[in-house]
Amino acid sequence: MQENRLAWIFGSSRSGSTWLLKMLSDLEGVVPIDDPHLGHHLGVWRPIPLAWAACEDPPELSTLLEVKAEEPGYFFAERYRDAWWKPLRELIAARFEAQAEGPGGGAGGQDGAERSAAAGAAFVVKEPGSHVAPFLAELFPESKVIFLLRDGRDVVDSWLDAYSEGSWAIPGGAFPVSEEGRIPLIRWLSEVWVFRSRQVRKAYESRAPGDRIQIRYEDLRGETERCLTGICEMIGLDSGRVPEVVGAHRFEKLPRTARGPRRVVRQARPGGWRDNLSAAERKAMHEVLGEALEEFGYDSGEPLAATG
Q: Could you read off the pLDDT of 201-252 as tens digits, one per residue?
């Protein structure tokens, strides 16, 4: 794996990253790595999510990488960085290579071995755990950064749907949230969006203009070809098939039975949170998100919703 041919899709889950990776995967020369969850091992949340239901005042969200960095017993302690930094790089790179060369590791008409053996293959890693985006960007300083940003209110709304009976997310560790638990969960999910978005911005700003691109989900929906072409130019991919690939992956082409509530592909309509959350839930969400929404160019004002 050539490090300058490694690109991270950072942002927040439920932001269209699966759709984006599927489109990129259909282009020649791409090795797709889907949800390796590096951040959930390297950036364990502190405090635990229960704190947003158990504490009277919201705590400050952080990760073990930050709160334990100066403790010598911590495995990734800063004082021992020289001992673990290079081996960690090599482990991650070897793991990506192994997946690329294995069955099903390739896409776009090539098997894994063909794809990874191709000269200059581009490894595109979708949502590795964006709360550690600056760490991964520093670990691989020649890699590219794709900052996929979506309105945090739609992200929270989408995840809240995932925490419901019969949801696609239940087998992976989610749970059906009770009515009493909805607002604490909304507060927690909102904090996660804020933290991740700010961390990804740090990773994005660490890159030269030619090695980074920021794409809003709302633009990706409306100007898909332009956004995908911009990514191709940054990574060095042939964009000739972009119109064909975009056409094949349009949301509207999915069967109705494959999209909707509690499914992986739920809805592609920005602003759906206005109709799906109660007034109390919207208020709790805005209390956490308001300042950050403004930071990232979203109007934090709350128009009247269709439902109370």
A: 999 999 999 999 999 999 999 999 999 999 999 999 999 999 999 999 887 6
Domain membership flag for residue 238: yes
Alpha carbons 27 and 225: distance in angstroms, whole number: 13
Rounded to 5 degrees, φ, ψ at 216 are -85, 140
What pLDDT, in 10s, does the model give residues 4-15?
999 999 999 889
- The structure tokens listed for 221 are 């929906």
Q: Across-strand partners of 122?
A: 30
CATH label of the domain that carries residue 196: 3.40.50.300
- Domain assignment of residue 305, yes or no: no
Contacts of 23 (CB under 8 A, 6+ apart): 224, 228, 245, 246, 249
The string of pLDDT tens digits covering residues 292-306 is 999 999 998 764 444
Phi, psi at residue 119, to the nearest 5°?
A: -60, 125
**291 token code pair:** 């300042």
Domain, as residue range, for 167 = 3-295
CA distances from 27 to 24, 115, 219, 224 (A): 5, 11, 21, 15
Both tokens assigned to 297: 């160019």
Token duo for residue 68 = 């334990």
Give the Å distances, CA to CA, from 48 to 53, 55, 60: 10, 11, 11
- How distant is the alpha carbon of residue 108 from its chain centre? 22
Return the SS3 of 113.
helix
Nearest to 187 by CA among 264, 44, 283: 283
Where residue 152 falls among pLDDT bands split at 50, 70, 90?
Answer: very high
Q: What is the pTM of this model?
A: 0.89
Closest to 259 (Cα-Cα) out of 250, 248, 251, 270: 251
**pLDDT at 133 (0 to 100):** 98
Q: Tell me, what's the pLDDT at 118?
A: 47
